[in-house]
Amino acid sequence: MPLADVMTFYMATPLIITALSAPLLGEKVERFRWIAVLIGFVGVLIALRPSPQMLSWAAPIALFGAIAYALSQTITRDLRGIHWVPLVLWQFVGTGLVGAATIPWAWTTPSLFDLGLMFLVGVVAMICIICVVRALGFARVAVLAPLQYTGLLWAAILGWLIWRDVPTLPIVVGNAIIIGSGLYVAARGKMVGKAAE
User: In this predicted model, what pLDDT tens digit does every residue of 129-154 receive, in sequence order?
Assistant: First the structure.
């Protein structure tokens, strides 16, 4: 599958998380949060422009990955009473075991430079997972879910800064919609918080 199609499935994770948070965690998901998540996903579709290959035989694998990631976020929120270190450790152990199981079919010996990049990716991933686990300890998953869409915005910014990739019009429009949905959630969340005081 093209990367944009896989990313579209991955970016469906906030929708899945929002849907799972009520039955699995008993958390309330306000209507405005549902609206924001749906609008954000429309922005994702505009930015990524998925191809017809989204309906190929590989699609269930990408969908399974999105559902598994959403479940991991939901379970992490449910385990928020546990210290964050074992939660991060077991995520790395699980990911490492799954990755190791694929080695016989897809191993390519990396160069020294590639090993350095892999190490850097591992450090950055560890920092990201720590931040996500800590955030899920403080806030409901439906509150955090729309923030995942900002990954597209950061990808566009870093692509421009590092490789001078100029964002296309669909990426600009899609990111504007995603940012708008995030601002809407922040504004409505503040209004709901004031009303509850």
Answer: 999 999 999 988 878 877 887 787 78
